[in-house]
Structure formats: structure tokens, C-alpha cells
Design goal:
- By secondary structure, the protein is α+β, with helices and mostly antiparallel strands.
- It has one domain (7-128): 3-Layer(aba) Sandwich (Trna Endonuclease, Chain: A, domain 1), CATH 3.40.1350.
- It has three helices and five strands.
- Strand 1 (51-61) and strand 2 form a beta hairpin.
Length: 129
Amino acid sequence: MFDKISEREDRIGRAVVNAAFKVHKELGPGLLEKIYEVCLEHELVKGGFDVRRQLDLPINYDGIYFKEGLRLDLLIDDLVIVECKAIEQTNPLWKAQVLSHLKLTNRRLGYLINFNVVLIKNGITRIVR
């Protein structure tokens, strides 16, 4: 069985959720994904976190090196991955995408956040590997 996530990861996760609530409250649904992503990054940076956005990460597969194998929407404190969406219908593949990103980057905690919802609590999925 997997170990619990660290206190630091949990603290980052709480900050991600709080920032998503704040951004959604201010902007509401219906905007472009990039707007939410930039605003979420801004809120997390204001909170003292190191945030990298649209980060290209290499992957290795069977001896093949892909310099730009993955693109993460947000990576917070080099620990937590956030995938932002702004679309009407959810797709189960998005959760699988975040799980793949966690596996390929050897990270434990990720969030899938769809901002195109009436209540943001219905758009946040916490994913632990």
C-alpha cells in the first residue's frame, strides 16, 4: 500500500483548492482555460509557493528520450501537479491523464480542476497515486 502524502503536499493541496475557490468566485464559469490557469498561478505565487506553468518535462521510454514528453499546466513546489480545464462535459480520460503525469514524474498528488461549473466544489478532483 502507498504511504500517506506528506504534510507539505497536503498543505499545497489545501492552497490549490482555496485558490481555485477564490479564482472561481471572482471570475465565474465560461472563460478560457488559460485565464483560470494564469489566475490560479497568481494566487498560489501570492501565497508563497513556487509555481511553474506550462512546464515541459522530458520522459524516457525504453531507452528513447523525449525532451518535451509532457506538458504540465501547473507544478507547485516541484511536488503537486494541477491540470486545469474549462469545458462543459467532463471526460474520464482527464483523471487518467493526471495519473499518468504523476506516475511519469514520480509525484504523488495531483488535482484536476474544471472551472466551467456552477459550483467549483463539483469541478475539483483530488488524485493521489
